Sequence to fold (260 residues):
Amino acid sequence: MATRNKIYFASDIHLGSGSYDSSRKREARFVRWLDEIKDDCAELFLLGDVFDFWFEYKTVVPRGYIRLLGKLAEFVDVGVKLYFFKGNHDMWMFDYFEKELGATIITNELEIERNGKKFFLHHGDGLGEGDATYKLLKKFFRSSLCQWLFARVHPNLGIGIANRWSTRSRAVGGKDYSKQSVQQAWLVGYSNEVLKTTHYDYLIFGHRHVPFDVLLDNGKSHYINLGEWVHFTSYALFDGEKVEVKFFDPPKGAVISTKA
Fold:
């Protein structure tokens, strides 16, 4: 049996977006990947937007995703440490995954050190310059008032509206991500600013949907974006020495960008 000594990172699976059939196929693909890594995975970091919508009522959660949740339960049961980051699509996670899966829920950033390497982890939304409107919306959506108000809406209506919105989510739009390169610069600039006060070997984000591995200004640290699972099926692996961005069942012509 393989030694559990590897750390995996993934984000932006956007389960629930698009049609029911396309979401189920995406879930099945992600579960196949989990099966592939389960023997050597020590820690699994899911950096946000695992779901295209998520809200936990006191006694109700969105239906579906049984195969994913069952597989994650298998991971936890054999000792894998599981981390869920709140993304901009699934920021309304509370304690369900903590109670049912023993997961650690991360609201903002997480700083860790593994095998002498320092990591800065964040979903990536609302950081750096720009996105002023979203930053205001994020502050409101994460407020206890907004969450209290939504909790007053009956689940049939609240989750129903969200699911209908998810079928038109931009996450399942076209494959032309060329304009994302400009937006990537926000996180590159943010990463370089962070490094002015604290050294990290790897600053890893999701959110922007393009797999990136960019060497930062100090010539030592890397900004990594995990891409997504709608088109790229990309993830990152830390083998104890270095982090690499990889593809599972990659689409034709999939590449990792080194320029923002």
In short: Helices lie at 20-37, 66-77, 96-101, 132-141, 144-151, 155-166, 180-195. The two ends are 40 Å apart (CA to CA).
